[in-house]
Amino acid sequence: MNRFACLVCLTYLSVAPLCAAEPTIVRLWAGTPPGDEGFVPEPETDTSTASSKLIADRPIIRLTNVSQPILSVYRPSAANDTGAAVIVCPGGGHRVLAYDLEGTEVAAWLNEIGVTSLVLKYRVPARDANRRWLEAVQDAQRALSIARQNASAWGFDPDRLGILGFSAGGETAGLAALNYGERAYEPQDDTDRVSCRPDFAVLIYPGGLVDPQSGLLRDHVRVPTDAPPFFFVQAWDDQVTVQNSLQMASALKQANISAEVHLYATGGHGYGLRPTSQAVTRWPVRAGEWMRERGFLARKAAAKTATH
Length: 308
Fold this sequence. Notes:
Number of strands: 11
Helix content: 10-25%
Radius of gyration: 18 Å
Shape: globular
């Protein structure tokens, strides 16, 4: 069985020994997620059909009606393990999650380069049309704290925990990486005492960060002086404006925060990391180089217990 297609639900925050054949699954919230009190969810479903658009000539999973967010933890082989970890946020316009294209397939790549991957299945569709990012950011902040809290059990360094997102997941990852000083929900328990600041952020064709009329960053997108370093990838012909990457990188520059931007002439949107003839689909090579150059993939003797 393909371990990236196998999901085995565990009880809330249980930490079981990680099996090489399947991920560990962790629920983010003990009960109803914040803001969902009284919300009646519909059954979770894959909306893709035989006529749905293919990506690199292959179908994708498009999950919707996700009401119970989870983290799926995939570990690299012991021989390959660098001690780094990344939370992966699939995109889908806050309506669906491209769960394999921008989730489990990304986990497989991260494992190949020695990184523990934690795929975030966050809530969709958005509840508030004016703040479509809200539930996703709540879930991402909670996921970062849970991951860091369990770093020792899951075998990674809590000081090398990144976040990576695509499209709406890029918006989610970006906002989580900027807003770690203030949670988007009332703290629930001791888990929320653990830092939700990622140590680095990777945004692939992000959306939602700029105002569509002005092309400038939205009012709620603010860069703190101690934001983590960022890595961006986008194509010039992306229908989701490249200003999402450029304006964000410019704001980071003004705050003296490191940022690396890879802007390709062509490639469109929504390619994930499935290779095609387009150069943009080779972005994982550049991202891996960036992580190595910044020391995030440097091996350490053992993971530490989270203290921050």
